[in-house]
Amino acid sequence: MVVSQQAAPTDETSPQWWRWPRFAPSVVVAGGLPLIAVLLLYLLDVPLGRPGFVYLYSELAPIYLLRGVPILVLLAGLVVALQRIGCADERRVRRALAAGAVVYFLIALWTYFEPPGYRGRYLFELESPSHEGAFVLEARLLRGGMLKARDEPVASLSEYLRHFPLLLCRTPEQMRGTRVLSNPPGMTLLARDVSELFAAYPPLARAFERVLPGAGSADPGIERWFAEDLFLAGGLHLLWIVSIFPAYGLARLWLPRVPAAVLAIASVFNPATVNFTPGKDPAQLASVMLLTYAWFAAHVRRRWDLGLLSGIVLICGSILSLVHIWIAVVVGAATLWDAARNPQRRRNVLFNCVLPATIGAVLVVTLAWLAVGWNLPATFEAVRRRYLEIQGQIIARPLAWNLVGAGLFLLFAGPALWVVSYWARRARGGDDVGRLGKRLVICTATVLLYTYFFANNSETPRLWIPFIPLLLLGLALRVPLFRSPGPQTARLLAALLIVQVTVTLAHRALLDVRETEMRLTTGRGYF
Questions:
Q1: Cβ-contact 414, 503 below 8 angstroms
Q2: 486 Cβ contact list (under 8 Å, min separation 6)
Q3: What are phi and psi of 201, to 5 degrees?
Q4: Of 114, 117, 160, 258, whose Cβ has the fewest other Cβ atoms within 10 Å?
Q5: 253: Cβ–Cβ under 8 A, 6 or more apart, which residues?
């Protein structure tokens, strides 16, 4: 059951507040600002980044734009489905939701095939030590028994997990990058699982080998590696696609169907995610959104079992990335702050969220220890220390270079964040849900500022992907438009959806960030 809330009792809740003639221009103006900014930067060839690492502009922008046309055609079907999910007939609503999910899946799937020479691009990234290739290379060394911890060979997966803190002592020079050294072993385990899957099912491996560029002309062992890379890239992209489902469930805890659908799409389909998929950071949105949904659903619906799930997802997700701990800090702090002055809410948070989540987390940690002797807390702490050591060496200085990253975040966050921020600026006062949204924004912004100035400011667009949905949700809960269904609301939100998707595609066409490393290191692109 979805808990519905009344809009904030202010003048802003009157129908005139969100009338189409008044607020439609804000979608175009505020939504178009990031695109205008990127276009001007593109035309003037202004370097984005800092000395030593600059995101390059795409040399294939016209081709990108042409290949994005099918997405725009599909977008029309998504808008039609969006209009129909707001009707009163439940059967029609279910059909519209199913149709909308299928169309969104096709749109997101096409982004995998959209880049020119996409197969060569993904193979490069999954063989590069600076990209996800670092985890793939580590998985191959693990399978081949070539890893050592203090000169002792690591002969099995259980030994790898037990000795992981020792393996973090390797230098970036030895690893030809910092990706493995600044992350938990989850991505390496995923790459290893793909290798095991291909070994167990040869027909699957042969199927992917046949679609490789220049299939049959390379060494069979290398072709098997490339087939595994292509399969892993598809799996990471699929994880990003399915993150829409927990994102929609999260928004539906407070919002009607149409606003929830638009908010969910904006949370997972934006320039930051589309520019960096397939990759670990967009893929981990699936677990980040599931964690956030489980926690808030436990709070709103008073379900201790969902609180238990949030604790399980927290630890399992943290094996992939420690950003899950930051997300838990944000949602936990916002919820506890919201319940601070209400004894009943405090009891609800304690018994449906905090205690069950703690039990779920302890359960996963205990099972990992009993199964293979893996000390998860020690692993997380070792990764945290090593990450700070590495980032302390590469964090941008002086202050002026820190501020460059803030601009990059605004460019990559997507037009929906700009538009919703403008709408939220007009909201005053608010009810309980509006105050929760405000506190969620404050907590998210606080963590972002801390991580930005004291943890990492050199790759802002990629590393801040998980925080964009929290900012959007918090701001949307402050805006009566998102909580007041109506035909004009649906049209306005449909316009926002169109702007979000088209600007994201244009952004990717102009600023091809995934091609940056190859052009910097080899002097050429994927052609």
A1: yes
A2: 15
A3: -130, 80
A4: 117
A5: 2, 3, 293, 296, 297, 300, 301
Among residues 273, 312, 281, 283, the alpha carbon closest in space to that of 295 is found at 312
Neighbours of 95 (CB within 10 A): 14
What tokens were used for 128?
């590069």
Q: pTM of the predicted model, to two decimals?
A: 0.91
Q: How far apart (Å, rounded) are the C-alpha atoms in residues 479 and 424? A: 5
Residue-wise pLDDT tens digits, 382-440: 999 998 888 766 555 556 666 666 777 788 888 999 889 888 877 665 688 889 999 99
* Residue that has been written with the tokens 């990127």 in this structure: 38
Distance between CA 486 and CA 94 in Å, rounded? 19
Mind spelling out the 3-state secondary structure of 99-152?
A: HHHHHHHHHHHHHHHCCCCHHHHHHHHCCCCCCCHHHHHHHHHHHCCCCEECCE
Q: Which residue has the tokens 């979608």?
A: 27
Q: Which amino acid is at 501?
A: V
What is the C-alpha separation between 316 and 77, in angstroms, rounded? 36
Q: What are phi and psi of 149, to 5 degrees?
A: -120, 110
Cα–Cα distance, 178 to 107 (Å, whole number): 33
Tokens of 53: 């690492």
For the ranges 13-17, 260-264, 404-408, which has the lowest average pLDDT? 13-17
Reading the block at residue 455, the tokens are: 């943890």
